Amino acid sequence: MDMKECTKCGEVKAVGEFYKNGSKLRSHCKMCMAEYRKVYRKKYYQSNKEAIAEKCKTYREKNKDTIRARDKAYRERNRDAISAKDKRYREQNREAIIAKDKRYYERNREALAEKNKAWYEQNRDAIATRRKTYRDKNKDVIKARYQNNKEAISVRHKAYYEQNKDEISERSKAYRDRNRDAIRSSKKDYYERNKEDILAKRKVRYEQNKDRAKATSDRWRMANLDRVRAKRKVYREQNNDKIKSSKSKWHRDNPDKVRASKQRRRVLKRGAEGYATAEQIEARWDMWGRKCYICGGPAEATDHVKPLVKDGAGWPCNLRPVCRRCNSSKGSTWPFDIKAARELQ
Ligand SMILES: [Zn+2]
Ligand SMILES: [Zn+2]
């Protein structure tokens, strides 16, 4: 094998280790030339740093789209390899990366916060959509993660809250003041979207805490009578027909209660004494087989046997079912001769 001595490093090497210059071999070996080029490049770079950077920048700006497309294509082609490499790198340099990030963050805290905020404001909807999609897709994972760390999370939250109490309450108050309308409308939107769920849950909760809930709302109503009245008035004005029809439905469905109430009103109007509930009047009707106590026809009203105008009372014992005809022919007769009246039939 032909050999040759390198005039730079002085080693004797195979001729394959030398570049050719025309038909002659170069006097420095390939390795020495590579070393020289490396040093030369470095020097050149050092002394032209700014010009090079400028040139690079111009180039990048001019070819922005091409570069971006190329990078993207490259990343897509090598996605797995890149992410594996990234991961490896991050794992190997974990501490250093964290420290570096932290330093960077500390140095640029305010600018970053500003930037983050601007970015968030600009992408609010997209972010919300993405979050929601993520949450919907990973519901179970999220839930499981929470369940597994429930206690730790709550401890952490509590500690954080205790440490930052004043700041938090101040901040949230300021936020609420600043975003009052937005909050209200977002609450409303949420309610509209989840109406059925919310109402169902509310109902369950109400059933479980009925007494307490009632007491609370009574207290609130008593403390806010003006508001309650105003609201009721508006409601009545807006729902006149609805109220009317529900009232008349109630009347149809509760004839006994209606009768009792009419009866009581008559008693009150006369200034007479006595009081009968719907149940007591029903019992009186049942006792008479729900028939007119004079003629035996179908009962249609309740008679005060001793008329109120003649000092009769509103007590159940003075009440009997009667038909309209007998009721009006009896009028306020007292004493009343039932036998004579029956014979007239
Ligand atoms: Zn050499
Ligand atoms: Zn009758």
Protein described:
It is a single chain. The protein is mainly alpha-helical and 345 residues long. Among the domains are: 3-62, no CATH class; 89-177, no CATH class; 256-344, 2-Layer Sandwich (Herpes Virus-1), CATH 3.30.40. Helices cover 73% and strands 5% of the residues. The chain is built from 16 helices and 6 strands. The strands form 3 sheets. It has a two-stranded antiparallel ribbon with strand order 1-2. Strand 3 (20-21) and strand 4 (24-25) form a beta hairpin. Helix 13 (255-270) crosses helix 14 (278-287). The N and C termini lie far apart (152 Å). The model has no long low-confidence stretch (mean pLDDT 92). The structure holds zinc ion (2 copies). Residues 292, 294-295, 297, 322-323, 325-326 line the site of one zinc ion (ZN).
**Structural category:** mainly alpha
The proportion of strand residues reads 5-15%
Number of helices: 16
Which regions contain 5 or more consecutive residues with pLDDT less than 50? none
Q: What small molecules does the structure contain?
A: zinc ion
Give the SSE string.
Answer: EEEEHHHHHHHHHHHHHHEEHH
Query: Would you report the number of β strands?
Result: 6
How confident overall, as mean pLDDT? Answer: 92
